[in-house]
Amino acid sequence: MSTPRILVVDDDPEMRALLLDELRNEGFEVAEAADGAEAVLAVRGREFDVILMDKNMPGPSGLDLIPGFRRTCPRSRIIMMTAFGDVSSYVEAAEKGAVEYLFKPFRMEEMKAAIRKALGSDVASEGEPRGEPA
Amino acid sequence: MKHLTARLVILLMLALMTITAIYDYFRLVREREQLVEQTREDARVFAETLALAVRWNVRRGRTTEELQELLTEILARPGLIGVGIYDPDGRVVATSVAEGKPASTRDDAIQEALKRKEAASLMLEAGGAQILSHIQPFRWPGGRTAAVEVRQTLEGVERQFGRAIRERLLSRLVVLTFFVLSIAAVTRWSIARPIRALIEGARAVGQGDLAQRIHLARPDEIGQLAEEFNRMAANLEAAHQEIVQQGDERLRLEQELQRAQKLAAVGMLAAEVAHEVGTPLNVISGRAEALERTIPLDHPAHRHLDVILKQTERITGIIRALLDYTRPRRPVLRQEVVLPLLGRVADVLLGRTRAKGVRIQLDLPVVLPPIQGDADQLQQAFLNLLLNALDASPPGGIVRVSAGDEPVLPAEGRVGIMRGKAETPCLAIHIVDSGNGMTAEQLAHVFEPFFSTKGRGQGTGLGLPIVEEIVRAHRGEVEMLSVPGNGTEVIVRLPLAPDRAGDPSGAVPEHAPESRNEGR
């Protein structure tokens, strides 16, 4: 089984750095995007198994991006991150097709568990075998 | 009230007295004339008889002494105070005068009577008393004319007349007294008492006792007045109650909306803080966790890391508690009719619309399909939207509220933004202001918390985010359209009540389970 690829989308560089460090440590292949535009470019270039995306970003929000990702890369599982208490966007994200939801601040273990869960979820089994890393 | 009765009685009494006095005066004058006439007639008849008697005696050749004797005897007749016989030359043949009475006579009258050979009757004044004198000519032996004079006092007449006056006065007094007493009683009973009751009732109502009623079971005008008064008092009472109720209702609604608004604003603020703080907290705790894994367990730095992790959790706990406190409650969805909700909100804004000179016009049909909603939250949403519309409209402007599928603003040059997504049939409510509209750039930000186009310190920047939250919780949508320079339109679409929408499962599903919120 090839190394799962994960795209981290967050406008906060420190947060991004933290997540990238943690995920690399876990042995995942990671890429980053600082906003919606970068994220769109990133998914155009290659396919990711998981997109870990913040809800609140300048420009299009994480919620706005979900439908596009569902179309262009239907096999990517999307995990939303947002501030705790943001219940209404949880509902919206779930409706749009996010598989997991993380309320900041979350524990790193929590995040890793969510990614493992997402990787083992139905979307993966439906999908074709993942292509070779570029 | 005593004044009215007294005045009425005095007035009636004066009128009555005047009428009877005039009547009695003429009556008495006539009576007196009759009495005098009768006395005069008596005197005439007596004088004629006396003249015949004297003529007969003279013809028989009685002496003067005998005639004198006759006269003295005659004088005993009541009322006579003097008799006299005069020869054709007017000289006294015999005369007799009652004791203490004046013997005055008028020679000229006797001469005149002798000359004319006609009876004469005249009134003489003597000693302040009136005396009736009757002169009766008769034939003296030898063919010449002599006369007798009979003088009679009018004392009897005066006495009789005085008695008649006294009797009349007495009877009038009795009648008048009776009359006055009856009028006083009648006015007191039928006017003064009911009017007093009316006055007391009116005074009580004037002082605020609107439950006051007057009980006068009378068919007359006063009874009708009392009935009208009662009807008026009942109307006043009902109107007053309605006003009090409306005032209470408005006050309650205003306070409730204010409280909800404050709570929602704090909630928005807390959510914003949570958002902003969430990421840095996550970075701190995440880095601490990473360190914790790399540092050997027996290293003293572990204690520091524990503290860092605990304290970040503590901050999280504080913000979570604040969010829990201010989190908008889930809407309690019931079948609601929009019109009264909007009416109440417009009512609450009455003071503000008057002060600003802007009118809120509800162009809504009386019958609108019921929607599925939470009355309190919808009122709050409409309040925010109407407040925005009022603030955007210039003095003299109109804020129009209508229903319908199509936007009110013309499509040309129109820009818009939409929040939420309705998936069931909806009722669309349009709120259109008469302001200057907004640019696409401004519109893009209107639903962001703390964004405000109003002047500094005027808007909280939370009105529309709260509307969005409420509308989303209702599974509806809110759209904001604007034609720059031509006003702004907000369309709120709310799902119709299930039976109307033909979708019995149209109720809003539960939100995310709360446990999700608790994190780990």
Output mean pLDDT of chain A: 85
Number of strands of chain A: 5
Q: Assess the beta-strand content of chain B as a share of residues.
A: 15-25%
Helix content of chain A: 40-55%
Radius of gyration of chain B: 60 Å
Number of DSSP strand runs of chain B: 13
Task: Classify the beta-strand content of chain A into a percent band.
Answer: 15-25%
Order of helices and strands of chain B: HHEEHEEEHHHEHHEEHEEEHHEEHH
Give the helix/strand class of chain A. Answer: alpha/beta
Strand order of the largest sheet of chain B: 7-9-11-13-12-10
Please, could you describe this protein's structure?
The complex is a heterodimer of chains A (134) and B (520). Chain A has 134 residues and is an alpha/beta fold. Chain A contains six helices and five strands, in the order E-H-E-H-E-H-E-H-E-H-H. Chain B is rod-shaped. By secondary structure, chain B is of the alpha+beta class. The longest helix of chain B has 74 residues, at 221-294. In chain B, 27% of the residues are buried. Chain B starts with a helix and ends with a helix. Chain B has helices spanning 2-59, 64-74, 107-116, 155-206, 221-294, 301-326, 338-348, 350-356, 375-392, 440-445, 463-473, 498-501, 514-517; strands at 80-86, 92-97, 120-126, 129-140, 144-153, 334-336, 359-363, 371-373, 398-403, 415-420, 426-432, 477-482, 488-495. The interface between A and B is medium-sized, with 30 and 33 residues.
